TrEMBL record:
Record Gene3D superfamilies: Methylthiotransferase, N-terminal domain, tm_1862 like domain
Molecular-function annotations in GO: 4 iron, 4 sulfur cluster binding; metal ion binding; tRNA-2-methylthio-N(6)-dimethylallyladenosine(37) synthase activity
GO cellular component: cytosol
PROSITE patterns per the UniProt record, alphabetical: MTTASE_N, MTTASE_RADICAL, RADICAL_SAM
Pfam families, alphabetized: Radical_SAM, UPF0004
Keywords, ordered alphabetically: 4Fe-4S, Iron, Iron-sulfur, Metal-binding, S-adenosyl-L-methionine, Transferase
Official protein name in the record: tRNA-2-methylthio-N(6)-dimethylallyladenosine synthase
Radical SAM core domain ranges (all copies): 116-377
EC number per UniProt: 2.8.4.3
Length: 383
């Protein structure tokens, strides 16, 4: 029996697919490079933008053209997992009749070690899900509440990787800084999705979603334990968020030469008004102050970011504040996106997508020319 995994989206999905592959191989399946030869096709989906979902639909269309009979007995079994499952199994099977099963990622298979193609660098998930509820983001609904892997498990996995010859790792999570600090089972999703007159004030504030660290934040302890493993030479982590980028973490980066000097810190907007509508929990000044504290201690640091342009209601003045912030920080790289309303998010429910596509594109281009073009030669490779 052969399996084929098609992965869309971010590094978290790619890392999940490595574990799904491990589960298939533990069950005696072999990987195939061609979906046409597979007995089972897993589509690990992304919902972050409409285009990402369109690509999933395009892939299914290709399968349908190749196997015109829709009966599952005469074609590979198709399993859909990943972020698109937040639409609900019933709706997905209605819209995508070729799909045989819709399964949460944890049910597709995580019981085996990851199967990694790269033999020197490894992605290591440390947490999954998110408690932050940025209004534009589908992750808290698609992946659920934040859950951290036990530190002993993460450290054991990295020790094993080092023994196999890996010398570089990237610790992965939707918000790595809050590793080990989550409150479990708060039921926000139920709250958000059940209310008719849903408003911004119903969304939990980012800062209150975590217990404040008592002593050393667990993420810093984890990094120290991993740094102590012989053979590990370079440590990257992503994604960090500004509201809990602990002072202890800055000190650790400054003094621990195994940690990469590239810090990816999504800002999303430079306008306080838009940041508040996004429920980001910090202001332009807060972000800048954090960057200045990092730069003061980590002399050779380079900062990368994510920015959304054309968020509902973004005025020319709001956008100018983003441009000003980009100039003030001097980002090494920015992943800019034109806002796309995602069904299921708070922003989809409470704001009108009222910025014309032409303006979104112009603003995106301005940031691209300002941040990414001048840095083309020295753009950091995001691990
Ligand atoms: S921190 Fe915000 S943007 Fe990042 S995954 Fe969580 S909700 Fe989404």
């Amino acid at each position: 029996m052969k399996y084929f995994i098609k992965t869309f989206g971010c590094q978290a999905n790619k890392s999940d697919s490595e574990r799904i592959a491990g589960d298939y191989q533990a069950r005696g399946y072999q990987e195939t490079d061609s979906w046409k030869e597979a007995d089972e096709i897993v589509i690990n989906t992304c919902s972050v933008r409409e285009r990402a979902e369109d690509r999933v639909k395009g892939f299914l269309l290709n399968i349908q053209k190749y196997f015109p009979q829709t009966q599952s007995a005469t074609r590979p079994k198709i399993i859909l997992t990943g972020c698109m499952i937040h639409h609900g199994a019933q709706k997905l099977r209605q819209d995508l009749p070729l799909v045989d099963e819709v399964l949460p990622i944890a049910e597709v298979g995580f019981n085996s070690p990851a199967i990694r193609k790269d033999k020197k660098h490894a992605w290591v998930p440390i947490s999954s899900g998110c408690n932050s509820f940025c209004t534009f983001c589908i992750v808290p609904y698609a992946r659920g509440r934040e859950r951290s892997r036990p530190m002993v498990d993460v450290v054991a996995e990295v020790k094993q990787l080092a023994a196999e010859g890996y010398d570089e790792i990237t610790l992965l999570g939707q918000n790595v800084n809050s590793y080990g600090l989550e409150k479990a089972g708060i039921g926000y999703r139920k709250l958000l999705m059940s209310r008719e007159g849903f408003a911004l004030s119903d969304i939990p504030s980012n800062q209150s979603a975590y217990f404040p660290p008592d002593g050393i934040p667990p993420f810093v302890t984890l990094i120290r334990q991993i740094s102590a493993i012989d053979g590990i030479k370079k440590i990257h982590f992503m994604t960090s968020n500004p509201w809990d980028f602990w002072e202890e973490l800055i000190d650790e980066i400054a003094t621990n030469q195994k940690i990469d000097r590239f810090v990816h810190l999504p800002v999303q907007s430079g306008s306080d008004r838009i940041l508040s509508l996004m429920n980001r929990g910090y202001t332009h000044a807060d972000y800048l102050s954090l960057i200045n504290r990092i730069k003061a201690k980590v002399k050779d640091v380079r900062i990368g970011t994510d920015i959304i342009v054309g968020f509902p209601g973004e005025t020319e003045t709001d956008f100018e504040e983003t441009v000003a912030l980009a100039k003030e920080v001097g980002f090494a790289v920015a992943f800019s996106a034109q806002y796309s309303p995602r069904p299921g998010t708070a922003a989809y429910r409470i704001y009108e997508d009222n910025i014309p596509a032409k303006i979104k594109k112009e603003r995106w281009q301005i940031l691209e020319d300002l941040i990414n073009r001048p840095n083309l030669e020295s753009r950091p490779i995001i691990r």
